[in-house]
Design a protein that fits this description.
3% strand, 373 residues, mainly alpha, two-stranded antiparallel sheet, single chain
Length: 373
């Protein structure tokens, strides 16, 4: 059956007629047509960001009143942290919590439960604005990942936040979070070195792909309930390493997915657990005006970056996370060994799916593609 597939670069559509995979498992899913990536215009996105920033800022003033300014004065370190965190959250697959959670728990000595709650609260604003910008301006997304992975992720984060997170110690959560990020970084490096081919969407789609997306959504939701991020990392690994989808498409897709997870997790804390008060509220008020501008700006910047630049940014963030964990997180008893084994375990999984040939782009197609943008 003829189909059209676009390689993840500024190349023309490449016609592939009657291509058959040499893998028997590939017969279970039919190739699908892949649309070209749409890069939105700069000024419409900027106008959307400005409107969102003004609306959120006015809402922040109305809800916080005089306490809002006091919260910034008392928690200016949190505000400063989220200048960078919001750009990361809107512009990469890491999420703002990937900056907020380690900085708060390692540098500012905030308890892990309060850092997790703050991350949910602030991502609800920042990544919510980024998602509106992405959808409003028709940034290219892999909608099937959202359709199948999103509901499963929302179930996972609800169960994790309500049942698992209250019973895990803070250092354990931080070590698990770092292990997942480090293994992703290693596997991403290996995949780009030995399996660099990418498409703009999943090339084959059938029952297996649906199950994989639902499973990744559920696992990512469970992890997100522990540290407010995780869904983005798991789905990023599946889409990029296994399905060979371009980072430029995967990054905004994971932003939308993490927004759904964040809203669910925050609603769980507010409506079910009733623990959104005190320090978490003050830190949230201090960061809202920052992330309302920073996260949509990150989404805008992401659409202007090449996949290579996006990956390099991820490398830097993962390296900082790893080094800071080694220096600042205590590892009593056998936790250091467990940390190393967790990295090895996750790395083996990522490398295995990165070298699976089911979704690879044939050499004949790669040869006809122009240099990366």
């Amino acid at each position: 059956m003829p189909d059209g597939v676009r390689i993840c670069q500024n190349a023309p559509m490449i016609a592939r007629a009657g291509r058959r995979s040499s893998s028997p498992t590939a017969m279970s899913a039919a190739p699908v047509a892949v649309p070209a990536v749409h890069r939105p215009a700069f000024w419409p996105m900027l106008r959307t960001n400005v409107v969102l920033g003004v609306v959120v800022f006015l809402g922040w003033l109305v809800l916080g009143r005089e306490h809002a300014l006091d919260a910034i004065a008392a928690n200016w370190r949190v505000s400063l942290t989220m200048v960078f965190g919001s750009l990361v959250g809107g512009g990469t697959s890491e999420g703002g919590g990937a900056v907020a959670f380690p900085v708060l728990t390692k540098a500012l000595a905030v308890p892990a439960d309060q850092a997790r709650l703050f991350s949910f609260a602030i991502q609800s604003v920042g990544m919510g604005c980024a998602t509106i910008t992405i959808v409003r301006n028709r940034v290219a997304l892999e909608w099937r990942a959202i359709r199948y992975g999103g509901p499963a992720a929302m179930v996972g984060v609800f169960l994790s936040a309500a049942q698992l997170a209250p019973h895990l110690a803070g250092p354990t959560v931080r070590l698990l979070f770092t292990a997942i990020l480090v293994s992703l970084g290693l596997a991403l490096w290996i995949s780009r070195r030995f399996a660099p081919d990418r498409r703009d969407a999943i090339g084959l789609f059938g029952p297996w792909e649906r199950v994989a997306l639902v499973g990744a959504g559920l696992l990512g939701g469970l992890l997100s309930g522990l540290a407010a991020v995780g869904e983005n990392t798991i789905m990023f690994a599946l889409l990029v390493l296994c399905f060979r989808v371009c980072e430029r498409v995967v990054t905004p897709t994971t932003v939308v997915l993490l927004t759904l997870v964040t809203w669910t997790g925050f609603a769980t804390h507010v409506l079910v657990m009733g623990d959104f008060h005190g320090q978490a509220v003050d830190m949230w008020l201090a960061a809202v005006p920052v992330v309302a501008i920073g996260a949509p700006a990150g989404a805008l910047i992401c659409t202007r970056l090449s996949r290579d630049v996006i990956v390099r940014i991820l490398y830097v963030l993962i390296s900082i996370e790893f080094v800071s964990t080694l220096l600042l997180v205590p590892m009593p008893g056998g936790q250091g060994l467990l940390f190393a084994l967790a990295i090895a375990f996750f790395s083996l999984i990522c490398v295995r799916i990165a070298t699976w040939r089911r979704y690879h782009v044939p050499d004949a197609e790669l040869a006809s593609v122009v240099a990366p943008d």
